[in-house]
Design a protein that fits this description.
Layout lengths: L1 E10 L3 H13 L7 E3 L21 E7 L4 H19 L2 E10 H7 L7 E3 L3 E5 L11 E5 L11 H13 L5 E5 L5 H8 L4 E6 L2 H13 L7 E5 L10 E7 L2 H7 L7 E13 L3 H10 L2 E9 L2 E8 L3
Parallel strand pairs: 6-7, 8-9, 8-11, 9-10, 11-12
Antiparallel strand pairs: 1-3, 1-4, 2-3, 5-6, 12-14, 13-14
Helix pairs in contact: 1-2, 4-5, 7-8
């Protein structure tokens, strides 16, 4: 199968904000992830000696299947970028190229490196070298074609909050597992059992592989394809949902019922301007908002179900 790599080169004073706003335009086309080129990234000293050169220009790249819809999708994206530029001043230039599926699956890997998140967790691509510190919890991740490398603020916020709120022995549910990175983190943080649900069978396959890479007990940590909420029958101590805020608002109709009394929900994938809508829905569904953690124009929100 052929794919179209759509690279949006941009110029703006706040490059992190611009990258997130452009990525959001891709997400409206149904993409679960994009590749962000950041020429200002600061390599960590323990990355190893196999680091690729940094990109020369800031850009966001999304991959669209080359089918009968691609022309219309490109038109929608370009119009959205023109509108974004008019509203914000972000200057964009779109460059398209055609690639094969195998090349697409590996094209983004050149700029994915180990990243330290929180106190002890390090997200390490399987193909990179890394020298851990004695207390490091290293997550070996190969995202394949699934979303979730740990480098995006929405994922790193979830990992930070898992470190804070996940108690050893607790039960854990991840709604929309992507690469399985949060499931792997929960197993490393000594959750008692975990379930990951995704409506994308490919994501489920990739997540299962990553759980095996990280030594998760398959009798305690499992992944499954299905509806994000209705296919879950049990209640859990801690639930994560790292999805778009519009989806989180919909899921909040049913997610509180999947929490035990006193259970914790961590919601991420929320751009700053949608924060209030998610918080209002949490409150309306009986969850107490404990914390709002921001990062680079995104927020993660922690809610707690009452003990009654």
């Amino acid at each position: 199968m052929k794919w179209v790599a759509v690279k949006v080169l941009f110029e703006f004073d706040d490059e992190a904000l611009a990258a997130d706003l452009i990525a959001d335009r891709f997400y409206t086309l149904g993409l679960k992830g994009v590749v962000i080129d950041d020429p200002k990234i600061d390599p960590d000293e323990d990355w190893g000696d196999d680091a690729a050169p940094l990109p020369e220009k800031a850009a966001v790249t999304g991959y669209l299947p080359r089918d009968e819809r691609v022309g219309d999708e490109l038109a929608v994206l370009e119009n959205a970028l023109v509108d974004l530029g008019r509203k914000t001043g972000i200057q964009c230039r779109v460059v398209c190229s055609e690639i094969d599926e195998e090349d697409w699956a590996h094209a983004w890997k050149a700029f994915f490196f180990p990243e330290r998140i929180g106190r002890n967790i390090v997200v390490k691509p399987t193909w990179r070298q890394f020298t851990p510190r004695p207390d490091d919890l290293v997550l070996e991740i190969d995202p394949g074609m699934a979303f979730g490398t740990g480098t995006h603020p929405t994922t790193s916020l979830c990992i930070l909050l898992l470190e804070k709120y996940l108690q050893p022995g607790c039960s854990f549910l991840d709604v929309g597992i992507g690469s399985g990175i949060l499931m792997a983190a929960a197993s490393k943080l000594r959750a008692g059992r975990g379930l990951g649900i995704d409506n994308d069978p490919l994501a489920v396959q990739i997540a299962a592989t990553n759980l095996r890479l990280n030594g998760a007990d398959p009798t305690k940590f499992r992944v499954a394809a299905g509806d994000l909420v209705s296919s879950v029958s049990s209640a859990y101590d801690l639930v994560t949902a790292n999805i778009l805020s519009e989806v989180i608002v919909q899921l909040l109709d049913d997610l509180p019922a999947r929490l035990v009394p006193g259970g914790i929900m961590i919601a991420s994938g929320i751009i700053m301007q949608n924060k209030a809508a998610v918080m209002d829905k949490m409150t309306a569904q009986g969850l107490e908002v404990l914390e709002v953690l921001p990062k680079e124009g995104w927020v993660a929100i922690v809610g707690k179900k009452s003990d009654n």
